[in-house]
C-alpha cells in the first residue's frame, strides 16, 4: 500500500512495510479475517498524523479484545459494549488525545447500543470503528443484531426469521441521523481499492475528532470465515453478494468541511 513504484515493478517495490506501531506478535485472528488489515490501517494513519504518543484506543469484549497486543499505543479495556462511555471519559479528561473505540457488531449494536447511540448523539469528539461481520465470531458464531435475514448461525440454524428474530439493524444509518455525528461512513477491506478507501475514511474521522467537529463512525463490513464456515475466498464472495446489497458502502454523512 505504501510502495513507491516509479514506473518500475520490482520485488523491492512490491514489499509492504508494516507500520512501526505494529508489534512483532503473531496475530490470533483466523485466516482471511478483516481485523488484521484494519489494525494496519489504523497504525498507518496514526503514524502519518504523528499521533503515536497521543492516541488512546478502547477495546471491549469480542474478537477485537486483544487489539492492544498488536498496536503499540495506549489502550484501555472496557466492559462488554461500554467502550463509547469509556472513550467519552478519556476524551473529556484529555481533549488533546486522539481517542477511538474498536468494536464488533455484537458488542456495539447489541450489548452496547445505548452507549453507542448516546455518545454519538452527544457529539463526543471520539471515533468509533465498527467491524460488522454479521455474527458473534469469538463466542461460537451466534446470531448478531446485524445477521442477515436467512443467514444461518449457531442460534438460528434454519436462518434468521424476521417474525421470530426481528430484522437486522443498520446502526450506521441510525448514526447518520443523529445531530452529534459529523462523519458516518461504511467501508470494507476485501480489495486494494477498498483498503485505500477505508484508510482515507479512518484518516478523515481521526482528523475530524482532533478538530472538535463531533463524533465519527466508521463501519467496516467484514468477513468471518470461521463463523460463516467458508474459505476466505468464498467468504469474500458471500460478503459481496449478500452483505453489500444490504449494507451499501460509501459515506452516509460528511459535515467535516463545515
TrEMBL record:
Looking up PANTHER family in the UniProt record yields: 2-OXOGLUTARATE OXIDOREDUCTASE SUBUNIT KORB-RELATED (PTHR48084), SUBUNIT OF PYRUVATE:FLAVODOXIN OXIDOREDUCTASE (PTHR48084:SF3)
**Pfam families annotated for this entry?**
TPP_enzyme_C (PF02775)
Q: Does the keyword Oxidoreductase apply?
A: yes
Please give the name of this protein.
Answer: 2-oxoglutarate oxidoreductase
Where the record annotates domain Thiamine pyrophosphate enzyme TPP-binding, the positions are 69-220
Which InterPro entries does the entry link to? 2-oxoacid:Fd_oxidoreductase, THDP-binding, TPP_enzyme_TPP-bd
Keyword terms, alphabetized = Oxidoreductase
Oxidoreductase: present as a keyword of the record? yes
